[in-house]
Amino acid sequence: MSPATVLGSGAIALWAFLALLSKAAADIPPLELTALSFAVSATLGLAVIGLRGRWQVLRQPPVAWAHGVGGLFGYHALYFAALAYAPAAEANLLNYTWPLLIVLLASPVLGLRLSRRHGLGVATAGLGCLLLTGTGLQASGNAMIGYGLACCASLTWALYSVLSRRLAGVPTEAVAGFCTGAAALAGLAHVLFEHSIAPSAQAWLAVLVLGAGPVGGAFFLWDIGMKQGDPRLLGTLAYATPVLSTVLLCLGGYAPFSPALVGAALLVGAGGLVASRA
Rounded to two decimals, what is the model's pTM? Predict the structure, then answer.
């Protein structure tokens, strides 16, 4: 496994904390939480750029800004909207098809060959994801709208991830600028569609950790992994995210351990092992 792929895997580990930290900041409306978290990540990223005197990295072509801001904000906006309309477990199931889409899109978009082991790894890890997140879809009320939004979120993040390799000339430091744009868009959407709520001390701590990790540092690591590492392997390993996230929720007292969780962890681990040996 290359160093860049290892760094990309670090993003997967950070994203495992997203659900737990979101629970800790549950009193903040979704778009407000998104805006605050991206504001923290943007501040940290811009501070690093300023200390290194590399403001020139923000001078990127419009297509790079559209890709960066659109991918970061678009995915989170679609994902939070999906959770508002559809049952959370089922929306998560559809959302976490993005690792599968990354592996599958690596061939037509990037011209990378997919082997039988890649396919077997994806299928095995996908089965684990299915076992973990639910037993079927409910087509009641506005749920179908939420399912559609979750599928759009999945496709958005998969395309953002795979197309990052097409923009390999854009330095990873530019992600700080993209986070700034995402924070601005989320803030505008919050003003238009939500009522502001003053965060509690616990919520502020969760926001700071989110901005430094799952909604911050993870994007920089993922950018390196997608541009310089193996997107097929990262796409398969990303199936570990819902499993790790659920384990942390259990440890935090938000969900009980279950046989399905153990089985899902074994299947996801096996899928990643098979794909890594391809």
Answer: 0.83
